[in-house]
Amino acid sequence: MRRIVAIWAVCGGLWLPGCGGGGGSDPATLADSDRAAINSSATMLDLYGQFLSTFAPVVDVALNETRQGGGCPAVSVDRGTGQVTITLDYGTGCSHSADLPTIAGSVAVTANLTTGTAAVALSNLTIGGVAVTGTASLQLAGTVGSYSFDGMTVTGNLAFAGEGTVSGSATLDFTPERAVILTTGQLALTPVEGPTTTVTADDLVMDPLNNGSFLPEAGTLTIVAPASVGGGTVTLVVTFSADTIEDGTVTVTVNGRPAGTHQLPGLTD
Q1: Please, what is the average pLDDT of the chain?
Q2: Which of 101-115, 168-182, 233-247, 249-263 has the lowest mean pLDDT?
Q3: Total domain count for the chain?
């Protein structure tokens, strides 16, 4: 599987070309601190996308109630009065695809069919060997009698062992091929190393089954990160494309000014 590995560059507090935190003349300078913020945000977004992938079988069940029993994961459905619980059991480890990380443990989604809310319970969940803990809930799309997991909003505060945390909410759509689209999202990304950023997702398309990667193939991510000089923040708008899947290339603007392209480091097969 392709995986982002963040490489950190340090400006050492010096005012040097490329260390301006988005400062300088037009076009904007893409500072080392800006690159670090983009890299760390992409790393945490990759992990968040892996977590969201665990919900793909829930959508399959909603569309086809015969999707129960064995496979990866094993799926069980328990219907009660006004609610339904869908349990996705990945056992000691299996994967949706040979190119994607192994998932172990289980995820249980209990939906209230009156309110359209759903509680998510994680049990010994690991993705690619990384333990995932924390809380998450869903707000289903639609109205009473016609709720749908397609278009749901996921809200949570998740910790990825040794990597960092992701908190906030995102609204998801799914294509017939089960690509995940973050139509909107407001997330706080806190890696173990590197800057904490707040990000806004706009129609980010992740197609891991076809791309073997959770990197977006389209859409934008607006990143608000600490500026390296003078305090305050810098706003980076990162646009993903087919080139991102090919070699990690994204285009970037800094505080509304063009800054060219950036290549996400450590992209390997």
Answers
A1: 82
A2: 168-182
A3: 1
**pLDDT tens digit sequence for 189-241:** 999 987 889 999 999 999 988 888 888 999 999 999 988 777 799 999 999 99
In whole angstroms, what is the distance from residue 211 CA to residue 193 CA? Answer: 27
Q: Is residue 13 part of a domain?
A: no
Give the pLDDT confidence of 23-61 residue by residue, as tens digits: 444 567 788 889 899 999 999 999 999 898 887 677 666
Query: What contacts 258, CB < 8 A, 6 or more positions away?
Result: 26, 27, 28
Q: Determine, yes or no, domain membership for 128.
A: no
Q: Which residues contact 223 (CB under 8 A, 6 or more apart)?
A: 37, 38, 41, 197, 198, 199, 235, 236, 237, 238
Nearest-CA neighbor of 250 among 224, 201, 226, 217?
A: 217
Peptide bond into 216 cis (omega under 30): no
Exposure on the CB side of residue 260, measured as CA atoms within 13 A = 12
Give the list of residues 6+ apart from residue 7 with CB closer than 8 angstroms, or none.
39, 265, 266
Q: Is residue 165 part of a domain?
A: yes
Cβ atoms of 19 and 31 closer than 8 Å: yes
Domain assignment present for residue 191? The answer is: yes
**Distance of alpha carbon 139 from alpha carbon 171, whole angstroms:** 9
How far apart CA 259 and CA 264 sit, in angstroms, is 15
pLDDT at 163 over 70: yes
For the chain, percent of residues with pLDDT exceeding 70: 84
Structural domain of residue 180, as residue ranges? Answer: 32-66+152-263
